[in-house]
Every structure is written in structure tokens, then in C-alpha cells.
Amino acid sequence: MISHLVVLSVLSTHKVLGQMVAPVGGTSIFWNPGPRYGCYNWVQEGASGAVNPEKGVDCAPFLNPSNTRNQSRADSCVSFVNDVNGSPTCPTWQFDTWGWSYAAGQLNASPGYAGTFSSGSVMLRNSARDTTDCGLYEVTLSYQYWPGAIIKYVTGDFSRETNLDMAAHFVVEYDVLIESDPTALAGPRGNCNGDQRRFLTTDFIYTFGDQTNLLSIVHFNPTNLGPPIVPWTQNTTAGCRFLVQLPQYTIQEGVQTHIGLDFKTLLQTAGTNTCHPNGLPADIWPQAVQIVTSNVGTNMVVHLSNVDAQLASSTTPVSSGSAPSSSTSPPPPPSSGDTQVKFGQCGGQAWTGPTACAAGTTCQVQNIYYSQCLP
Hints:
Elements: E1 19-24, E2 27-28, H1 34-37, E3 41-44, H2 60-63, E4 92-98, E5 112-118, E6 121-127, E7 137-144, E8 169-178, E9 198-208, E10 211-220, E11 232-236, E12 239-245, E13 257-262, H3 263-270, E14 285-295, E15 299-312, E16 314-319, E17 339-340, E18 345-347, E19 356-357, E20 362-367, E21 370-374
Parallel strand pairs: 3-4, 10-12, 17-19
Antiparallel strand pairs: 1-16, 2-15, 4-7, 5-6, 6-15, 7-14, 8-13, 8-15, 9-10, 9-14, 11-12, 18-21, 20-21
GO biological process, one term: carbohydrate metabolic process
Keywords: Signal
GO molecular function: cellulose binding
């Protein structure tokens, strides 16, 4: 599996829900409908061995190479290859954890973590409020392509391997509800030096050449953590990791919200932060799609449904919390004459929102894509 990628983030207090998208003419890259049938694995990241034996109860139909169960395609491992020994290798739905220990009895405990599949919906619980340290704890829903496993089925053509070259758009979408919790921050350790993290992100992990890269989009951070936590980027010869906050993708707790991210467009605009400054390279392979809760001294319960990732010929705008719009024109951007709040975005390449900052803050350049109102 992919090793844990520690990402730190910030979110503007500017609560503009903004414009999401939905795929048009799309084909899912998900090989099995795990959330529908309760098929999943638990994986404890940062630990070796079979430290978390919990699994779903109905994975057998998807783990049998001779399976012909049809969910709009031939759900069979024979449509995958393994670079090591040539045998079929299936991608899987996973609950991933970081910081928590199954051996210590923290599954379905508090402090602790939990994850459930029920009638196509997924619940993630990350209860770190009453921990005795200020460590980072994560609970993640992940669709994971294991090393060497690449899907070949796209619109009936098994001779082609799935990569982002195959369509104009790559859209990850789902519906999400973060439970309102007025006691989520009332932990015993204070504010952990200002870091009371309570984040929700959508992560896309992908490879090209010999690099493994991550682009992470922040949706929720009610404690409004500021620098130096973000912008966060790490570029090495092994790959680039970039976490970005964009107001149009933020959500609020207690509100059912539709998330729709065109990662191909996002990757095209991320530039040097994602190790391909001259545009998208050829042969970008999906490695994992993840929905991540990250907590330091806080609690969080998230409900997910209708999770999908599609290669699509086009997209249509979707207002957060609504069904896809019949219009193909996005709403007008906020006026550049408005005043941005503290820690809000105030500039960057293609930014059309407020450029003036609230009293006591100034607009400071973080990178060519993001400037922020900082004290």
C-alpha cells in the first residue's frame, strides 16, 4: 500500500461554498462497489504486520478472479495485472488509520476510532479529543490501487489501461455530512500549542514515471489554523505533495454537501507544486482516492455516500449541497472590491475574489497560486 503522507492544512474563515462539478459522460474507475456491499479492509498505517484483522463480510465476490458478477462491468480481477509475478491483483476499499492502535483496543472505543459501511453509506469516527497527547490521528476512507495493480476496463476496452490521458476530466465526487458537535474541541490537553486540528480533505495520489505524488484539497477546518501550517508543500525526487485551501471547496458542519472535484483541472493549475510545471505529463496513473479526517485533540464524525471517481468527457457545475445544475455557466465570482477575512485567500494565479484584507492583516504571497490575509 501507499505509505502514510502527513499533510498539514489551513482553511479560510471565508465560508463561501462555491462551485463544485459533476461528471458528464463519465466512466467510473472504481472496480467494485464496496460501500454498497460492505466490502473493505482495515489498514493501520505506520505499523508492520497484520495489526488490524477487521474486514468486511462480503468481499468474496470481488476477490475471486473467476467472478463474473456484473455491476455495469465485468467485476473481475483478471482485468488487473501485477508487475511482480503476473498474477491478478485487486484494488480495494480500505479504512486507513494513523496514530490509532487496533492492538490497544482503540477500535470502536473513545478515545479511538470507528468506521462502518451501511446500505451504501460510510461513517468515519475520529475521537481524539480525550487523548493524553497532542498527536495526529487520522481515519480515512480510501480506494487503493495496490502496487502494480492498474485497471484495464474502460467502456468495454480491456486493451487500454486507465490513466488521466483518456478523458478531458477526472472527477471525484461524494455527498458528505459532518456531524455538529459543540464539545468537539473540549479536550484535556489545552490547544496543543495552537493546533486543534479538525480537518476533512479529499486526496488524490497518483504516479507518473517513478514519482508518487499527492494533491490534497481541504474542505473543513473550523479552527482556522494559520501559518506556518499552510500552504504546505514538499517536493523531492520521489515526488511532490501539495495541500491547498480554496474557498469554493469549503463546507460547514451540520450541512449535507455535495463534493465534486475535477482533479485533472486542479493538477493542471497546480504547476510547480505538483512536480510538473510545464503542464500535465503523459501517463498519470491513479494510485488512490482518499477522504481523510485529521484530528489533534478534537472529535469528528463524518457520513459519506455516493462516492465515485470518473473519467469524463465534460462536467457540469454543481452548487454545494444541491443536485447538478442544468446550467453550464458557473455563478459570477465575488467582487475584487470585497474585503477578505483574516486567514482568507486574497490573491494568486487565476484568483478573482477579494484582494483587500480585513483591518490588522495584509495580503502576503505564499506561492504563485495562493496569497493569504495574515496578521
